[in-house]
Amino acid sequence: xxxxxxxxxxxxxxxxxxxxxxxxxxxxxxxxxxxxxxxxxxxxxxxxxxxxxxxxxxxxxxxxxxxxxxxxxxxxxxxxxxxxxxxxxxxxxxxxxxxxxxxxxxxxxxxxxxxxxxxxxxxxxxx
Amino acid sequence: xxxxxxxxxxxxxxxxxxxxxxxxxxxxxxxxxxxxxxxxxxxxxxxxxxxxxxxxxxxxxxxxxxxxxxxxxxxxxxxxxxxxxxxxxxxxxxxxxxxxxxxxxxxxxxxxxxxxxxxxxxxxxxx
Lengths: 127, 127
Prior knowledge:
homodimer, 127 residues, mainly beta, 45% strand
């Protein structure tokens, strides 16, 4: 069952899942007109194909180890590290370990969303 | 010396500071036209007086224990918990322990910023 989205002021648990990661799905924790916060669960070996989102995003690794590819750049995210991307930056991810990520997406550029034919549909922004 | 703001794709360390918290100041990690990410360091006993910011914010406790007051509501943030606030929600904070918080601020409502006489100036948004 999907978790309900948090209301303003509701305390949300984003601690590492540990062994529970095997039984936990990606979930949207917060969703408003301008902000979306998602906990993405990536089992080892999983890829999220190349995509972009129109607004800026921050990606914080809560646990595990994820390769984060931005164009030709490759970054490694381990627990307690974070990066941000400007809107429209193409990126793809690969999980080197069972991992979870806290992703914060600004929906401010929703109106300018584009997803040209060369890109996979964005898995987080399909609307 | 202030840390330079991260560029897109730069990996930023947001692990708990542990004992280094005593020698670490609040720092802006990311700043763009629409997004600001700040690590706020609050020594035990410190208050951040009542204020609001125009855009939505998320507040994630990285370590410690912070009372988060929203109007008449009181929430407790411990390591690995997060809440969000809608723009303009008045709030104030008190650190029950040496604590650090990762605060993400949407600057999308910058133009509508208001700070009426009853409120303390916002410490994060003084521009």
